[in-house]
């Protein structure tokens, strides 16, 4: 499952093992003036993928507080399948750090290419929007216990 | 892998085994006047998920020619994770039929609910946009051979 | 009026008589990777057109429960005028079946081409979102009584 | 037909006779911070409706050169049906003036309310984007000759 | 500051002095079928710029009631920087008239070109959405007193 | 001018001196499930603002290659004016580092609040999309020489 992803040894060639957190088709509505996918849209996809991992670990609402090391490795083109893989790498009292990678694939081809990556920090919040505690890193409850058997 | 998905016995309770074809967060921009996700947007997600399976089987561009049996089982709400599962169920000379299901999940909860399903027909096309042959149903090349080991 | 449309004898050549339910210009924001109008957007237009007929017949809020026989006859291109015609074909206790057709026209030409069609089922709901009764099929109140004289 | 619309005597109560040029459902994606439909979106709908009349009269591509007397009579709310009626009021050598009105209706009610109006000027252009002549005002070719019988 | 802009003598060559009210990059999502920026989107940008000046003068919520003299001087292309300059030109008891101009610039060039202009009328409203008084024209409070030193 | 911005001493209270690179109204279409502005949209605004500074310095097309230290200081709410200030902080042979800050303001109030900041790296590219040299940091040509007198 995505929150226990171990990267393949050659991360430039193969995407992480496991389910993508987010997978979308890159559409013309999200292009920049260049005809390629807009960086803001790509960063939004990273943010959503990381947020899914954070929310599932915390079993609480989460908010993005920071993003670092965002790297644009290769452009994503209109029509591409874009798969976002994310894994929890560090947990504080109320915060979580999540690594995310986006891999593109031309829909009718087999090759995948790493296109974007980043490191996001989320904080879990309670119903009054105050930070709340999150479980230790090795205690993510698995969707697969319920859903992937 | 998603193009050989076998449904769990109780499809009302558990989503199909395997990777989702498409997985997105339901955003306010795609709501209808009701505040729930717009049916047109949901049908578009089904279409994209089915199209990924079709393009990967045909290893060619594909176009949607028909959609049937689209059923709205339960509304999808803003903020939900929506996962689309699709599998190839029939192959003709140039056409492919794909079953698709969409399952929603509140991001910080574990339960998933089947929300929408349908049956899509695609035709593979060559560079001149003429229909072209597709492989038999049991000969889908696997991404997993390259990428999921 | 649109809810009593009778199809012309050659529906491949001429659009239905009467007002379109929905008429829009196909814009670049709704294209797919192909540069043509995205199937999800087209299905959304069918859904809206059918929903207008349903809501006007029921004089109540309505929700889409199913869609069948969606057929993509011809692509819709950026800049086209797209007119959606819909008519009520069957009424149950709380449900309504509506046939919809979409016809495209290049804005500065006269010819129209049938591009998409489908059959939608809606259910009328009351303020608590429970299904509520709808009038018999021949008792649609006419907007034209008030507005089209 | 819409290009020969004659206004009803009480234009505050009844919309113009004939087909709307544009008819859409007001969606949440086009609201402003107020929760009502954004003025820019409304002006865009006026522009599209006027442009349809201009292009059909000129049987040529057209571009907007000016807009005047845009008046916001009443807000348009999410979920409303919005119908845009337009008629050609003046023709120059290469330019056309078109009056447009937008009328809203709650989808499950019968009453319509005039919400926005304006006067748009278009110029017909040829393939090199140079202004080109348009027919006199009483010589619009009718779609209805082909399509509305 | 933008609410006391004095136009340069040759307004065809140089944009108004002072901060733009709105400045955006023209994105593909807002193009028309022509590949240029859609008139509705451009009018929306004028509306937003004028609204900022009105709200800052009234220190109250404002609503657009009319727009006049909208002129499309030159097309805005995808990728352009578009800067909207606005200034208050007349104040009534509850209403304000604001002149707006939009200037485009290719992002990696220095030349600017006036592309669109218009005159907008806003009314200030109180919390019950009733018109409320606005200060005389020479009494706009300056953001610069707080923020631009 | 924005490319020589010097921060005010108390950057938590006052936005940078000079023109914003980008200034927009936060619209409902760009909210997340929370009703606040989506992080991906905010990062996109930072990217556009930084890109304007980079393109104007290089007088060439530029592409984003990295983003670091993105911090979400305070949420941006629907209807807010959001002003993005950016300044060039470092120049390499073909690359440029740009600091960006986003400040929100309720449209009918005077107070501004710093909401988001980050550090972006761009590379200038020539017509064949190969990296090309950029001028030293103190040689930005000023728009103000042409346009702000």
From TrEMBL, chains A, B, C, D, E, F:
Claim: Transmembrane helix is one of the keywords in the record: no
Example GO biological process: acyl-CoA metabolic process
HotDog ACOT-type domain segment(s): 16-128
The entry's keywords: Hydrolase
Keyword Hydrolase: yes
One Pfam family this sequence matches: 4HBT
One GO cellular component, as annotated: cytosol
Gene Ontology molecular function: long-chain fatty acyl-CoA hydrolase activity
Highest taxon listed in the record's lineage: Bacteria
Extent of the signal sequence: none
Family, similarity comment: Belongs to the acyl coenzyme A hydrolase family.
PANTHER family reported for this sequence: ACYL COENZYME A THIOESTER HYDROLASE, ACYL-COA THIOESTER HYDROLASE YCIA
Name of the protein in its database record: Acyl-CoA thioesterase YciA
The organism of origin for this protein: Zymomonas mobilis
